[in-house]
Amino acid sequence: MLFERLKQQLHEREQAHCYRRRRIMSSPQSIRVCLDGREYLNFCSNDYLGLANHPELIKSFKQAANKYGVGSGSAHLINGHSKEHHALEEELAAFTGRQRALLFSTGYMANLGIVSTLLERGDNLFADRLNHASLIDAGILSRARLQRYAHNDMVALTEKLTQSGKGEKLIVSDGVFSMDGDLAAIEQMASLAVERDAMLMIDDAHGFGVLGKTGAGIVEQAGLDANSVPVLMGTLGKALGSFGAFVAGDEILIEALINRARSYVYTTALPPAVAAATRSSLRLLKKENWRREKLHGLIAYWKQGASQLALPLLPSDTAIQPLLLGASEKAVYLSQQLDEQGFLISAIRPPTVPKNQARLRITLSAEHEQTDIDHLLEALESLLHKEAIVE
Ligand SMILES: *Cc1c(COP(=O)(O)O)cnc(C)c1O
Q: Entry's SUPFAM superfamilies (predicted)?
């Protein structure tokens, strides 16, 4: 019986301390949230700039809902493509310095659509081992030969590119790795791509809005452009505090996706009000640099405090600041202890990360203050100290 198998699989997950359960939020996303009826200081959201509950976004959302209603009512290619979607696409193209941009309902769907439109059977996809799950699934869906290389290992990537047979070549990587917080070696990848006649695609879900002089992401930060990174994907549900995703690039790329990306064609368009709220967010991003600057100051403050306590930091300069613990049990235990003290920090376990690399994924937001970080450091210090004694 099929359900017997599910039951067995769930049981195994439970035994491995990897069972996942949802908890119920009854407040907006913010650094102070109410979860399962309790108040927490939040260190686990991707709302890096604190825009998810910003009054300007809410105002635009409401105004657009008054004007356009709630549901878009159909796919973009039927009559679901509203003025708000279109204006947002034009603004995203201008912001990223590209000819065109195309909105997708989620980042997951964008990745499925992009990779499976670009590649077909017989082509080669080169992917970092730590790429986001959606990029892995996208590779499988494309039917291309999937070649995963060791994390950020440009020697390994070069070898795989050299050994690859016929067919088109696409290199794809997270810009900021979602569970590690480190950056892709994007300059090297860009020159390798040119040398080896491959195309480069960057998924900048955690860099867009946060990195670069104007917040346009890792490509801007690296001083690269649309020629060296022809396919740029970004999400709108993280730093932008809204929902959805986009891809930006040349006319030809966007027209091909409109015509052929199945996760674009066969799905209902986002509510126009969501696009309107995102436009507001983009305006704030351009007008107010202080959120990005404050966030980077907080990251430096945290790193200094955490290294003084010799916490097991990973080499990250982004808002994603994981503490590597190893055993899932340990990550879950610490996350629970912190929970009891009112800190919300998620334990990330396999299969989201490799075996024996369970961690606490701490994320910072421009809404935090140094005192919030002080409190967290104090709690971590006494917990780890206590644990050392127990061991
Ligand atoms: C979150 C994330 C996605 C998926 O984006 P959604 O809009 O949440 O579906 C894709 N890629 C990376 C690297 C991500 O972190």
A: PLP-dependent transferases
